[in-house]
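Hi R.,

Here are the chain sequences for the assembly we discussed:
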Amino acid sequence: EADIYQTPRYLVIGTGKKITLECSQTMGHDKMYWYQQDPGMELHLIHYSYGVNSTEKGDLSSESTVSRIRTEHFPLTLESARPSHTSQYLCASSSGANVLTFGAGSRLTVL
Amino acid sequence: QKEVEQDPGPLSVPEGAIVSLNCTYSNSAFQYFMWYRQYSRKGPELLMYTYSSGNKEDGRFTAQVDKSSKYISLFIRDSQPSDSATYLCAMSVRGSNYKLTFGKGTLLTVNP
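And here is the predicted structure of the full complex:
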């Protein structure tokens, strides 16, 4: 049973729209991450957080932003979506020891 | 040169076969090595986790790490159709706050 939840699972929107991808975990993990996954490509870290009010950009540059106001919640926002943002976005959390628990992903398509 | 190289496959084997999946890496600072399994339209799930060199066995799965060759492997014995998935290797540096570097993943199909 998944302890990390992502919504929406699938989203198709038009260019210029603002979108928020939600991620919540019930495990009380301090560390949370957003990865981007394109077909046939590596997962790339785009944002991470070590705790409430802590956010950092990852290795892959992204126009998205994140916030961490509550331990269990780590939403990702795109202010103005473009076709280049079409991808799968995976949220993960960790209590430590390099063990990440991933959500099922949010597949975004921007037309 | 990418930090982690993984043959994307696809790899197709008959049920019962022994499967060998491999990754090479260039960063000698990597100390933690993981294999994740990802079913279609799902997020990755941790399958095996090893620290430094050596072998680790869990049921039908064996993970090997050879730091001198910068090479890691995952072996699946008596493969089953339910093993059909994409297998991702991942690794991290000590003190990196659990930021993982992933391979591209190998798509495995086990045919009944």
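Chain A is about 0% helix and 50% strand. The longest strand of chain A covers residues 44-51.

Let me know if anything looks off.

Best,
T.
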